[in-house]
Amino acid sequence: MTDIVALDVIRRTIHEIAPEADLDEVGPDDTLRESLDLDSIDFLNFVVGLHEKTGMDIPERDYSHLFTLAGCVSYLSSAAQA
């Protein structure tokens, strides 16, 4: 998975759980939860959405890789290569 495809998956998933959220206003190192005002349930729904769209298992120990936009893109791209 390329970074562009990963970013598209992230955008679609965020839009489903928080339609009013604007990912364009989030910097690469900004925390997604804070920047998009996501609560813990929203974040879990985000992880589930990523799993559903990619088929990747995302263990709880890896959730911290998904906290920032850059980290999330990197994680999805790297996990798809493994």
Provide an overview of this structure.
This protein has 82 residues and is mainly α. It has a single domain (3-81), classed as ACP-like (Non-ribosomal Peptide Synthetase Peptidyl Carrier Protein, Chain A, Orthogonal Bundle). The protein contains four helices and no strands. α1 (3-17) packs across α3 (40-54) and α1 crosses α4 (69-81).
Write the layout of secondary structure elements.
Layout lengths: L2 H15 L14 H4 L4 H15 L14 H13 L1
Helix pairs in contact: 1-3, 1-4
Beta fraction of the residues? under 5%
Main sheet attributes: strand count, strand direction, barrel closure:
none
Distance between the termini: 10 Å
The tally of structural domains comes to 1
Contiguous runs where pLDDT drops below 50 for at least 5 residues: none
Give helix % range.
55-70%
Query: What gross morphology would you assign?
Result: globular
What is the CATH architecture assignment? Orthogonal Bundle
Structural class: mainly alpha
Number of helices: 4
Q: What is the name of the CATH topology?
A: Non-ribosomal Peptide Synthetase Peptidyl Carrier Protein, Chain A
What is the averaged pLDDT score? 93
Which characteristics define this entry?
Non-ribosomal Peptide Synthetase Peptidyl Carrier Protein, Chain A; about 80 residues; 4 helices; mainly alpha
